[in-house]
# Entry
Amino acid sequence: MTDTQDSLARAARLSFWSGPVSPQPLAGGLTNTNCLVEDRGRKYVVRIGGDMIEHGIIRTTELAASHAAAEAGISPIVVHAEPGAMVIDFVEGRSLTPQDVRDDRYLGRIVELLRRAHRDIPRYFRGPAPLFWVFQVIRDYTHTLEAGESHHLPMLVRLLDTADRLEKAVGPIDLVFGHNDMLAANLIDDGKRLWLVDWDYAGFNSPLFDLGGLASNNLLSPCETEQALELYFDRPLNDEMRRRAMAMTAASLLRETMWSMVSELHSRLVFDYPAYTAEYLGRFKAAMLAFDALDR
# Structure
């Protein structure tokens, strides 16, 4: 039995169902398996996955964040949870693409949704809340790569030195409750409003990390990136904020690169992680060239 088949069988056995169900796999999901289930005339998304310590994913934290995001009106409602499984109301809509994120018709709405998430979710979050500090994540990934004797080891010292430089450039931060995985696919348009889903990496962070992730994961142009920052902070950018934001955007790309390097060692999913690593390493190098040009 494959991992996907095992996850579908696990989803079918959940105690929430009124009777036999037939889970159907959904595309996406690089840290869990997602499937669609119909029961009692309603549709649900089931997320199957355990803790992933190598990525800092703790499912009880994800569940607490998902509940809080639902109460804040940011995400659909969690209707049931068991160890290693979460059942969420299905949203009739479509996942966004990077092209959508770059569209003026979406960018402002996404930034406003992020601002609401950052502000409102802490009001509803229950239990110990984590800190997602990207530079500590990078340092921890380094230890994981060393322990796994990754073939990327020769470049780690240079990457860590660069991360230290970026951390100093970011400087003191304001704390908000971050999503910390701003991929276009985590945004859903139901025709009336936007939803933000998948809280695997949720935790307190600088708002610059979500904004940087939004820019870097969706290939926003420098003009579009500045537009998003000015919409979020409701003021024109000065040179200091521009430099700090560029540093965090580069850090978000480095973290994504190292996430993929670690996944090359530990993930059992069928996915071309080496190609993903190469793509994001290229994006990171380009971001550092832009940062260096600004720093001259």
